[in-house]
Amino acid sequence: MRKNERRVAVIAGTPVDTQMGVEFINKKVSEEIKEAAASADRTDSSEEAAYEVLQPVYCPVSENCDAQVRFQYSDEAGKRARIDEIFDPEIAKGTKDFFIYCNSLSGAFDFDSYAEEKCVNIYTPLQIYRKLGGQFGRVGVIAANNISAHGIEKALLSANDDIYVIGSGNMSIVRAIERAHAPAEIIKECGLEYMVRYMETCGAEAMILGCTHFPYIKGEFEKICSIPVIDPADMMYAALVSPC
């Protein structure tokens, strides 16, 4: 089989979630390569099959959680300067696709306008939330901080101005994940079962993981939820491999 490679810059707030984004794409690519190989084996053709392989590139914005929060609350000129530092060298290398694997980061900077200015493709969680907004009447949102929760609510409302959002921002969950605490331990130490019961009591029809760190605890989180738990990363990846 013939391999075509496409470079994708994975940009997130800290080294940990940036690496999570790289691993997420690599896992998806590995699964697709296996499927392509199996399909080629089943096809009786003398023509060589071609498939595309995404090459994720590790591009963290900040050195840790606290630095990332400071970045998100900094002035626009400071944020723009740091984003340029990441994007411009990648664009010079021919990179056209940028995968923002960080909810709070995507809510702290206008990546849609930036994509038009730089003539590149930028995929963000907020784009997915705009699509999800039309699917629910009430949703729970668990985010890393409240700038992220605000950005997610704004995106959901842009698709459905009647949607009711019950939100929570809790950086202690992110810190526990970065310290590699066990998922079940994080559920307990951060009081997530109580938060889930509150959101369900308020009528939430689904729970949105508003932070790209949170798939780490998704399995344990689903055990305490009686409603669907949504991870936007899968929908972001689908947009990346099948751009409109």
Structure explained in plain terms:
- This protein has helices spanning 15-42, 65-72, 76-92, 103-108, 111-118, 125-132, 146-159, 171-178, 183-189, 192-201, 218-224, 233-241, and strands at 2-12, 50-60, 97-100, 121-123, 138-143, 164-169, 207-210, 229-230.
- The chain is of the alpha/beta class.
- It folds into 2 domains: 2-125 and 234-241, Rossmann fold (3-Layer(aba) Sandwich); 127-232, Rossmann fold (3-Layer(aba) Sandwich).
- The strands form 2 sheets. A 4-stranded parallel beta sheet has the order 2-1-3-4, with helices on both faces.
- β1 (2-12), α1 (15-42) and β2 (50-60) form a beta-alpha-beta unit.
Question: How is this fold's topology laid out?
Answer:
Elements (H helix, E strand, L loop, with lengths): L1 E11 L2 H28 L7 E11 L4 H8 L3 H17 L4 E4 L2 H6 L2 H8 L2 E3 L1 H8 L5 E6 L2 H14 L4 E6 L1 H8 L4 H7 L2 H10 L5 E4 L7 H7 L4 E2 L2 H9 L3
Parallel strand pairs: 1-2, 1-3, 3-4, 5-6, 5-7, 7-8
User: What is the name of the CATH architecture of the largest domain?
Assistant: 3-Layer(aba) Sandwich
Mean pLDDT: 90
Task: Provide the CATH topology of the largest domain.
Answer: Rossmann fold
Cα-atom radius of gyration: 19 Å
**Strand portion, in percent?**
15-25%
Low-confidence stretches are none
- Give the strand tally: 8
Strands in their spatial order, largest beta sheet? 2-1-3-4
Query: Biggest sheet: strands, sense, closure?
Result: 4 strands, parallel
Total helical segments: 12
Structural class given helices, strands, pairing?
alpha/beta
At the first level of CATH, the class of the largest domain is: Alpha Beta
Shape: globular
Distance between the ends: 26 Å
* Helix fraction bin: 40-55%
Q: Could you spell the SSE succession in H and E letters?
A: EHEHHEHHEHEHEHHHEHEH
Structurally, the number of domains stands at 2
